Amino acid sequence: MNTVEKQLLNEPKRIVQNVITAVIVIVFLMWSLTAVDLSNFTSNGVDIAKNILHGIVTPNTDLLFTFNTNGVPYLLLETMAIAFLGTIVGAILAIPLAFLSASNIVPKPIAFIIRLLLIFVRTIPAIVYGLMFIRVTGPGPFAGVLTMALTSIGMLSKLFVDIIEDLEVNILESLESIGCTTFEKIRYGIIPQLSAMFLSVAIYRFDMNLRDAAILGLVGAGGIGAPLIFAMNGYKWSEVGSILIGLMVLILLIEFFSNKIRNKIVRG
């Protein structure tokens, strides 16, 4: 009997735990299936699905290649601008909040309070923030930018905190031993180590915000979502196809280039 077989035989048996876990998963799965209601799935829905697919195959090329404010390229550019600006603002604001949430940087009571605040920010969905900001600023891209910024703060702060707390403490201890302040520890001991990871996470968030910005347009927060819902409500399936094609191409391109950039940043 080799070493691997001995290790496997010596491992503790977790049959009871595995059975309990499987039962819990099955119970939750069955309970979730009770929410599925197929009574509303009619032939009309099948026809609409066929019309959407037909619209994608036969899009409105005039809308797809028109470069005025009503064309798909302009609407995609506006959506990308909302996502980009919201990500930049959110990342800038998330950095100090992340440091204030890191228990290895600030006292634990302060870190606990800031983390509670960030948890509260993350509990509210982006579309709810969008509806709130529309009431404050009115419909348009500015409401979308504010929504993207606020939702980005919640997620980026959490990821930044995880990165900060995984730092090598030797550098921080060395800086503290020579009497450096908290700001100096951040400036000379942390930022040089974290800048690449922070940038990589921000690019990842921009990729997510691009999809969210398209959805926010459905509630009037700018971008391509509003023309999409108007075209669907008007049964203009060729226009729906044009918008969906443009959106898919944009998201695929952004995802391709963002992955390339993130790999380059992380691996050097």
From TrEMBL:
The keyword Ion transport does not apply. It comes from the Bacteria. It is a multi-pass membrane protein. Its main location: other. Residues 76-258 form the ABC transmembrane type-1 domain. The chain crosses the membrane at residues 15-33, 74-100, 112-134, 140-161, 213-234, 240-258. GO terms for molecular function: ABC-type phosphonate transporter activity. This is Phosphonate ABC transporter, permease protein PhnE. The gene is phnE.
